[in-house]
C-alpha cells in the first residue's frame, strides 16, 4: 500500500470531528486514489428499471488491494477477509477477480474460481454482476458457470482460463491434482457457512 494510502487510514483520534471530516474529504480526493476510484471502485447496475451507481467503501478497497497482493505472492497459500452482513462481500470478491484477470501479464493469464453457497449469487447487485461479467467477456476474459461437479472438474482439466462460477456443492470433492498450475485462485463467498475450520492467514 502506498504512503498516501497509509496516511489516509491513520488514526486521527486527537482531531476534532470537523477536522476528521475535512481530512477524510481531502484524502478521498488524493489524485492517485481518486483516479483509482473512477477506474475501479464505481459500480453501475440496474435496479427497478433505473440505473444505479454505488461507490465501493474503504473496507472493500482495502480488502481488494490485499487480495490482489496476496494472490501475487507465491509463498502465500491462503487468506481470510472478514466482512459483516451487508458489507458487500460478493462485490469485493468479484472486483478483486476482475482486477486479477484483467492483468493477464502480471498474473500469467490466471484462473479465478468463485465458489458461492447460493444460487442467487448476485443478490441486490444482480444487474451490476451481469454487467461486470459481460464487460469481462468483451475484454476476452472467459466466464464459465459450472452446472455440475463433473463440469468443474472438466474445466480444470482443460486448463480453462478466466472466471469460473461454482456452487459450493459442485466444487466439493474436486481432485486436488486436477490442474497443477500455480495461478489458480479460489475465492469462497460466505466461507463460514461451508468451511468448518479456517486457519489464520499465513
Overview of this protein structure:
The chain is an alpha/beta fold. It has a single domain (38-193), classed as Rossmann fold (3-Layer(aba) Sandwich). It is 42% helix and 16% strand. It contains 8 helices and 6 strands. α4 (58-72) packs across α5. The chain is globular and about 55 Å long. The protein starts with a helix and ends in a 14-residue tail after the last strand.
What key phrases describe this protein's structure?
single chain, 202 residues, alpha/beta, Rossmann fold, four-stranded parallel sheet, two-stranded antiparallel ribbon, 6 strands, 16% strand, globular, disordered C terminus
Structure summary:
The protein has helices spanning 3-8, 17-28, 31-41, 58-72, 89-102, 126-138, 149-157, 168-171, and strands at 42-47, 50-55, 111-116, 143-145, 162-167, 184-188. The protein has 202 residues and is of the alpha/beta class. The longest helix is centred in the N-terminal third of the chain and has 15 residues, at 58-72.
Instruction: Please summarize the sheet with the most strands.
Output: 4 strands, parallel
What string, H for helix and E for strand, traces the elements in order?
Answer: HHHEEHHEHEHEHE
What is the C-alpha radius of gyration, as a whole number of Å?
18 Å
How many structural domains can be distinguished in the coordinates?
Answer: 1
Spatial separation of the terminal alpha carbons = 18 Å
Mean pLDDT: 78
Unreliable stretches: 197-202
How do the helices and strands line up, and which of them pair or pack?
Layout: H1 3-8, H2 17-28, H3 31-41, E1 42-47, E2 50-55, H4 58-72, H5 89-102, E3 111-116, H6 126-138, E4 143-145, H7 149-157, E5 162-167, H8 168-171, E6 184-188
Parallel strand pairs: 3-5, 3-6, 4-5
Antiparallel strand pairs: 1-2
Helix pairs in contact: 4-5
Amino acid at each position: 500500500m502506498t504512503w498516501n494510502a497509509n496516511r489516509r487510514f491513520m488514526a486521527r483520534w486527537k482531531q476534532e470531528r470537523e477536522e476528521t471530516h475535512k481530512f477524510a474529504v481531502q484524502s478521498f480526493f488524493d489524485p492517485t486514489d481518486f483516479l483509482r476510484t473512477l477506474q475501479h471502485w464505481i459500480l453501475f447496475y440496474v435496479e427497478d428499471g433505473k440505473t444505479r451507481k454505488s461507490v465501493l467503501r474503504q473496507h472493500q478497497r482495502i480488502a481488494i488491494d490485499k487480495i490482489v497482493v496476496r494472490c501475487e505472492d507465491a509463498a502465500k497459500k491462503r487468506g481470510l477477509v472478514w466482512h459483516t452482513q451487508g458489507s458487500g462481500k460478493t462485490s469485493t470478491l468479484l472486483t478483486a477477480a476482475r482486477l486479477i484477470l484483467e492483468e493477464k501479464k502480471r498474473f500469467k493469464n490466471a484462473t479465478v474460481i468463485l465458489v458461492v453457497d447460493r444460487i442467487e449469487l448476485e443478490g441486490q447487485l444482480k444487474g451490476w454482476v451481469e454487467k461486470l461479467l459481460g464487460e469481462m467477456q468483451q475484454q476476452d476474459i472467459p466466464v464459465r458457470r459450472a452446472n455440475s461437479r463433473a463440469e468443474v472438474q472438466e474445466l480444470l482439466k482443460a486448463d480453462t482460463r478466466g472466471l469460473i462460477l461454482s456452487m459450493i456443492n459442485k466444487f466439493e470433492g474436486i481432485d486436488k491434482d486436477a490442474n497443477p498450475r500455480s495461478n489458480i485462485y479460489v475465492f469462497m463467498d460466505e466461507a463460514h457457512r461451508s468451511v468448518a475450520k479456517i486457519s489464520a492467514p499465513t
